[in-house]
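User: I've been trying to design a sequence by hand for this structure and keep getting stuck. Would you show me what you'd pick, starting by listing the structure so we're on the same page?

Assistant: Good idea, let's start from the same input. This is the structure you sent:
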């Protein structure tokens, strides 16, 4: 039975079990470590902080405040960044990446975000983040 006491799993409203996604940063200590020790990239549309990890996988996290837009805009931002990183941008494995917007979400475009992500990916080998 999903979500039963003592089983260690939780259920979504649809009844399916919800498990932690290994490719995402989830806890406050993980975000704090990346922000404290990571390399910072400043683009026109997005800001990125990344730090190497020992897991061998790239994990992604977002920090998007309510000041940047309504919930639908914030979710669209997250989806677009995930899609761009998954399909168009090549990053080496073993990085923790935190992405946050540089300007209000209504004031930027998908192309500007993708251009910033591409510039970030191009700057990684120069910084020795492999």
């Amino acid at each position: 039975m999903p979500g039963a006491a003592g089983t260690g799993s939780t259920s979504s409203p649809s009844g399916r079990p919800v498990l932690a996604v290994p490719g995402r940063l989830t806890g406050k200590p993980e975000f704090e470590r990346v922000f404290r020790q990571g390399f910072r990239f400043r683009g026109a549309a997005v800001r990125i902080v990344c730090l190497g990890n020992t897991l061998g996988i790239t994990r992604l996290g977002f920090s998007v405040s309510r000041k940047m837009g309504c919930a639908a805009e914030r979710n669209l931002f997250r989806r677009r960044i995930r899609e761009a990183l998954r399909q168009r941008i090549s990053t080496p494995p073993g990085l923790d990446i935190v992405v946050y917007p540089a300007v209000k979400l209504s004031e930027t475009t998908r192309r500007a975000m993708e251009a910033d992500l591409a510039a970030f990916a191009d700057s990684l080998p120069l910084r020795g983040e492999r």
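That's my pick for every position. To get oriented when you compare it with your attempt: The helical segments are 28-37, 71-87, 110-127. The two ends are 43 Å apart (CA to CA).
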